Amino acid sequence: QVQLQESGPGLVKPSQTLSLTCTVSGGSITTNYYYWSWMRQPPGKGLEWMGAIAYSGSTYYSPSLKSRTSISWDTSKNQFTLQLSSVTPEDTAVYYCARGPRPHSDYDYWGQGIQVTVSS
């Protein structure tokens, strides 16, 4: 059974960089042919895909967030990380990590989500 767990600060100040980590257990993040994604859901809005890192280490980003987003991994810890720079209150959301056979759909395992609030 694959499990994903998000971790990171729950409060970030405007203009700072948000950094979240997803720790994976029960399976390796380098296993063919899975993609490990980050998504978010602002209050009262739908789920937004932000980006993904593949089993190969290749990265994929939402065009609307690409200039502010970076996804990386630490295979020794079986973790992947999201960094979102220059945050504003509009980046307040519940952030999720998930696994799927494609970069941005068909997820089969999800983390429970982590609330991140951007406020001074």
Which characteristics define this entry?
7-stranded mixed sheet, 120 residues, globular, 4-stranded antiparallel sheet
Question: What can be said about this structure in brief?
Answer:
The protein is an all-beta fold and 120 residues long. The chain contains no helices and eleven strands.
Topology:
Layout: E1 3-7, E2 11-12, E3 18-25, E4 35-41, E5 48-54, E6 59-61, E7 69-74, E8 79-84, E9 93-100, E10 109-110, E11 114-118
Parallel strand pairs: 2-11
Antiparallel strand pairs: 1-3, 3-8, 4-5, 4-9, 5-6, 7-8, 9-10, 9-11
Going by helix content, strand content and strand pairing, the class is mainly beta
With helices defined by DSSP (H or I, 4 residues minimum), what is the helix count? 0
- Report the major sheet: 7 strands, mixed
The run of helices and strands is EEEEEEEEEEE
Average pLDDT score: 96
- Over the alpha carbons, how many angstroms does the gyration radius reach? 13 Å
Helical fraction: under 10%
Distance between the termini: 39 Å
Number of strands: 11
Unreliable segments (pLDDT under 50, ≥5 consecutive)? none
**Strand fraction:** over 45%
